[in-house]
Amino acid sequence: MMEDFVVISEGIEATHSKGVISVSKAGKTNSKIIDHPLVVLSVKDGKVHVTVKGDSRNHKKLLNTAIAHIKNLIAGLNNDYIYNLKICSSHFPMDVSVKDNEIIVKNFLGERKNRVAKIMPSTKVTINNDTIIVSSHNKEFAGQTAANIEMATRLSNKDRRKFQDGIYMTVKAGEAI
User: Fold this and answer.
1) What is the third-level CATH fold of 81-171?
2) Beta-carbon neighbour count of residue 44 at 10 Å?
3) Cβ of 141: how many Cβ atoms within 10 Å?
């Protein structure tokens, strides 16, 4: 049996029920389903205790994964996760805009049909000239939104050396700018 814990900093409230760990601070809430039969979570004394039933290398991996997820939830409440994307267009000028919870890319490679990327909940997207900034207090939502934008302009059956148009991630969360 392996056990470890994550210290909850001041001002952050943590709860656990039915395999869902939730942390909140000043109106922001992050939650994650950690529902594995070998992982047992408990919140007490200002710490989140993670226990894994077993002593093998694979059990150690489970323990470290659960700890990393909990640390990411807590870190997101203090600082937002930010992804930078660059709009690259050489053949046709692209028009990128935000509407409701979607990003709409018009005139990608001269296509008449718009390409659409979904924005995940509690994620903020801003467009400045040829740069898109995605930020959220939830690392998974910010990363998924950035990936959705990048995948919306994915090319297939084209020579990537010639058709370099698209929207590409330049800085991921946690990297230096």
Assistant:
1) Outer Surface Protein A; domain 3 (3.90.930)
2) 10
3) 19
Q: Do domains 2-78 and 81-171 have the same CATH topology?
A: yes
CATH, domain range 2-78: 3.90.930.12
Cβ within 8 Å of residue 79, ≥6 positions away: none
- Per-residue pLDDT tens for 26-84? 889 999 999 899 999 999 988 999 999 989 999 999 999 999 999 999 999 989 999 99
User: How do residues 108-136 score in pLDDT, each as one tens digit?
Assistant: 989 999 999 999 999 999 999 999 999 99
Q: Which helix (H) or strand (E) holds 149?
A: helix 139-152
